[in-house]
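Record type: monomer structure entry
Structure origin: computed from sequence
Chain ID: A
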Amino acid sequence: MKPFLKWAGGKYRLVPSIKNLLPAGKRLIEPFVGSGALFLNTQYEEYLLCDANKDLITLYQTLQQEGHSFIDYCRSFFTDENNVPERFYELRNLFNMTKDLRLKSAIFLYLNRHGYNGLCRYNNKGLFNAPFGRYKKPYFPLRELRHFYEKSWSARFYIADFQDSMRQAIPGDVIYCDPPYVPLSSTANFTSYQSRGFNQQQQMLLATLAKELAQRGIPVLISNHETEFTVKAYTPAQLAYLEVQRNISCNSKNRTKAKEILALF
């Protein structure tokens, strides 16, 4: 089942490759849950799903708590009247200003489906700033929302950074990490999923935590770009290599395959 959110770097197409390496366990922990593609397509008894993006986790928590009534509320934003630039920017401003978490969560889904390429981007002040997408009729993911809601009964959602979420792991857990990727070039880091970036020091800290947890018998699988930096950082993990189509570029001619790595500690 596909996620109900569009998500840059989403792992839906990679789920089979990830599952081939992901060990068995009672609980799956995802410190960078993103759109939840792996969560939706695995069958662990329990899930601990975390992300530093509070808007994302609040949306998941609201859907989990309210279910079908919240889905109907979200659908009310998917109208012809709201599918114009002026209304999009009004709702984007409301999203950035409101303290009403239910409203904010519904608008987050609206922005995701009406904004350019599903881009989730914030400026240095923490304000969502992805532009209007100009879609003829944005898709309302009713089936996907219902499936996520039903699947969420086995999950706990937390706003947390990767360090806090990984430190909650106990024997019997399995961890899958999908961090913001190491840029392939100086211009490739086009977006930030939170207002703060994810730098090289944090990449190294993630690898160090993975090694420490593996030594305690808790397996950790990490996805990233295949670069000289990641290959070195993930020593001595078991490495698997693959190529993935990237679709975020505004120029369709630049949407080529990128080399990725899966590192199992």
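Annotation 1: The longest strand covers residues 238-245.
Annotation 2: The first helix runs from residue 15 to 21.
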